Amino acid sequence: MFIPSHIASGYLLGRILKCSSWTVYPFIPILLFASILPDADGIFSSTVAGHHSVLHTPIFWIIIFAGMIVIQKWKKMEILKPISLGLFLGTQIHLITDWLTARTVGIQWFYPFNQTDYYLYQIRPEEGQVTVWEMIQNPYFSFYMENAVLFWAEIGVTFIALSLTLSNILRNKFSNK
Ligand SMILES: [Zn+2]
Q1: Which of 132, 139, 171, 176 is such that its CA lies 20 to 30 A from the CA of 112?
Q2: For residue 72, how far is its CA from the centre of ligand 1 (angstroms)?
Q3: How high is the pLDDT of residue 177?
Q4: Cα three-residue angle 134-136-142, rounded to 5 degrees
Q5: Taking the C-alpha atoms of 149, 153, 159 and 163 in order, what is their torsion angle to the nearest 10 degrees?
Q6: How far is ligand 1, taken at its centre, from the CA of residue 56, in Å?
Q7: What is the 83 CA–ligand 1 centroid distance (Å)?
Q8: Is 105 exposed, middle or buried (0-12, 13-18, 19+ CB in 10 A)?
Q9: CA 15 to chain centre
Q10: Are 62 and 113 spatial neighbours (Cβ–Cβ below 8 Å)?
Q11: Residues bordering ligand 1, an ion, CB closer than 5 Å
């Protein structure tokens, strides 16, 4: 999945979740940031197919989340509630959408116990031997568009998130008058 659709899916998740002491500020900004955070490993990888490091495994984020909860309880730091939940949910929605839209590399759901790569549609790692910066260029982009269902699902998610953001902005603008 591309970065804009990752942010869009994080945003939609944020809209779905009800307000509680866990989803107060800065839950949403952290959730949006976390929805692209696992792709930081792309910066250090030479190929698209090889860019999934430990940042693309659930266990890494479960450990971080558990650590933050322990600190929150111990130090009574309420601010860590929205931060830890935003970080956890944002990274998990990233992994789920990467799994759904996997083209050249899947998700190792059970790492480190099992290193099987999981994906929905058959992946083609040989197509992912380009740098992450070449993802929006051909031949990679044409290959990416070949799966029309996934490609249009990504466009759709981004479109829905943008429409909701826009309607929110307009509603706020008119209700302030
Ligand atoms: Zn990713």
Answers
A1: 132
A2: 28
A3: 59
A4: 105
A5: 130
A6: 7
A7: 20
A8: buried
A9: 15
A10: no
A11: 38-39, 98
